[in-house]
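Schema walk-through. Below, the input block comes first and the output block second. Nothing else is stored per chain. Lengths vary across the set, and this one has 177 residues.
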Amino acid sequence: MSSDTAMRLSDDERWEATRVLDAAVADGRITWEEHAERSELVWSARTKGELDPVLRDLGPAKGATEPSQDVVATFSKIISTPENTREVHANATFGAVILNLSAMRPGEQISVIADSFCGKIALYVPTDAVVIDDGTVALGKRKVFGTSEGRGGPVVRIGGKITMGNIKVFRSAGPAW
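--- output ---
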């Protein structure tokens, strides 16, 4: 095994690999079932050598350069439904950001960088979404309501820092404004 294939993977490299899988299923090169199987292998891979066989026949992701979307609320409230992006930067300063992600389909993935200072961020995700909250909080609250109904749903990874505010994730078919 060469030294490059023995290198440990970072989460960013795993996210990039899932973008390749997303592009392959969108192009019809693999099925949703194969996407789910390969996604499990990507997230369980420890080294680049373990990841290579999962992606070798797919090539690079066409949509890997999709821009991120910024949603900023300062002393205000913004309701947004992000589309055609893999990453959303939500920032609430003495305000509220509400992101409607309830239309996500199985296999889709999005990363939400949620930063708040004395503000509120609310996410609405599908009932089968897998929510991974890696963010931090200082004098505030982070809460994911409900449990995932199963495997194979969309993946929402949340990061960022909440300071004297909160972030809440609701599982539903969509928000009732």
